[in-house]
Amino acid sequence: MHPDLERILFDEETLQAKVAEMGATLSRDYAGKTPLLICILKGAALFMSDLVKRIDVPIEMDFMAISSYGQSTKSSGAVRILYDLERPVEGRDVIIVEDIVDTGLTLAYLRDTMIRRQAASVKIVSLFDKPSGRKVDIQPDYFGFTVPDAFIVGYGLDYAERYRNLPYVGILKSDIYATG
Ligand code: XMP
Ligand code: MG
User: Where is the Phosphoribosyltransferase domain (predicted)?
Assistant: First the structure.
């Protein structure tokens, strides 16, 4: 285990099994359709790349980056598009792929944006759900694991851009971000 972690919550095998299960569910729910999966960079990049390999209906992929915590572990509440989609979502069955839903502010903004752009349908899939952090009443349509009120890193999730490459997910030691 990485020395900056307090403990591991989900090992690689557990993550992969869950992602496979979520891919199977999406394959059933989107049978006969060609959904557009939108990966929210950068946190969801690893989840997205494993998830699409487990979906057996035709899909398309696009990417979007929005402002998030920056170097802090608390959400600022302000959401801003840093990098937008390549193509219009009008008439498409959109699946927003997120790493974690915390306050819900990001998802509420993204969902409204896709509806405003006239997507045919909008669903949210998030690997992690942190219900204790919620500030707006929004739930992912699909999620993998509920996580405790702690800052987690690994498998795409970062603190100050570090730890994204860990193949497992764990709780970061609080002195790492307390001291910067
Ligand atoms: P909101 O609060 O808008 O935020 O639901 C979602 C985004 O916040 C980040 N986030 C985390 N990142 N460990 C992380 O590495 C965490 O425990 C955590 N909680 C929230 C994440 O970028 C997510 O997309
Ligand atoms: Mg993020």
Answer: 13-159
